Amino acid sequence: MIRHRIHPRQALFAAHERSPALPVCDHYAGVEARMRKALSLQGEFADQALFDVTLDLEDGAPVGGEQEHALLVAALVNSAANRFGRVGARVHPLSNGHFVDDVRTLVGGAGDRLAYLMVPKVGSAAELAIAIALIERAQLEFGVQRRIPVHALVETHGALRDVNALAALPQVESLSFGLMDFVSAHRGAIPAAGMSAHGQFTHPLVLRAKIEIAAACHAAGKTPSHCVVTEFTHARAISEAATRASRELGFTRMWSIHPNQIKPIIEAFAPVTAEVDEAVEILTAAQAAQWAPIAHRGVLHDRASYRYYWHVLERAERTGQPLPGEARESFFPAVEPSELNSTENSA
Fold it and tell me: 125 lies in which domain range?
């Protein structure tokens, strides 16, 4: 008998349980030279997008030159330099008069290739819903058939209060923590050390915000993205922060604000070799058993642990970790798993 080789995504997860598989690093650039450098670096790292590039209109646009900057960003998104289709943009806040112009320029000029739109300084779930409605109106206006994913920055008291509602919005793909504005919103009650690489992991109010964002995202099947580390010349600081964000706080993505931060973030979010090897062994045996329970090295495994090890393997693939050829063919085939399953017959 030849059995279906059922892919983990089909065997272990219902459609609504499949979280977006975003790169673990989100690199921000707003000045033209740095935006072009970021796109170049994205192609140099690997044959896949190991990090996203977010082109910044909020802080990157010169005062009085907002429209020209938006047109430049749209052109870069459309350019051959966007070889993986993993370039998004951060627009001005909804409260800013340039928000609608940003959205119309980007959606009208590059809506088919935008990986996502980042909405900053969200004040509430109701406010983000309005921003999403305006984005969808622009998609309709310019005939963009696909739904452009929305990312949002949680950096205000209102956004943190509504964090579960933000994560539950169907258009939202990821929530990021805006450390600097969040600390500033406390009117000096959180010391400046709360914005440092060390202090942001120890101050209770900052730590609480991070934990609530991560928990809300996981409950809604969205991607929690960790905040910046401003000490961009300190390699150890970014590596330690990325490791803590991933291993202790449950974030599956993190911001980079300097090219020196990209590689340490990817390395910190990648599973170690022993984790990958164990995941390959367990999932290979489980797939051969048609995802029934198995014993592996004296330990019982079933679908609950299979889900965990699948996430390990997905993270390994997203961070460019080497996988055995047979495992790559089984779990990350060139065709979609649904197509693969449909072409394999049982007899």
Answer: 15-269
Span 167-193, mean pLDDT? Answer: 97
Q: Rounded mean pLDDT of the chain?
A: 92
Structurally, how many domains does the chain consist of?
2
Of 51-60, 74-83, 226-235, give the lowest mean pLDDT range. 226-235
Rounded to two decimals, the pTM is 0.91
**The domain boundary residue, chosen from 243, 269, 295:** 269
| Domain match, 59 and 90 both | yes
Q: What is the 3-state secondary structure (H, E, C) of the chain?
A: CCCCCCCHHHHHCCHHHCCCCCCCEEEEECCHHHHHHHHHHHHHHCCCCCEEEEEECCCCCCCCCHHHHHHHHHHHHHCCCCCCCCEEEECCCCCCCCHHHHHHHHHHHHCCCCCCEEECCCCCHHHHHHHHHHHHHHHHHCCCCCCCCEEEEECCHHHHHCHHHHHHCCCEEEEEECHHHHHHCCCCCCCHHHHCCCHHHCCHHHHHHHHHHHHHHHHHCCEEEECCCCCCCCHHHHHHHHHHHHHCCCCCEEEECCHHHHHHHHHHHCCCHHHHHHHHHHHHHHHHCCCCCEEECCEEECHHHHHHHHHHHHHHHHCCCCCCHHHHHHHCCCCCHHHHHHHCCCC
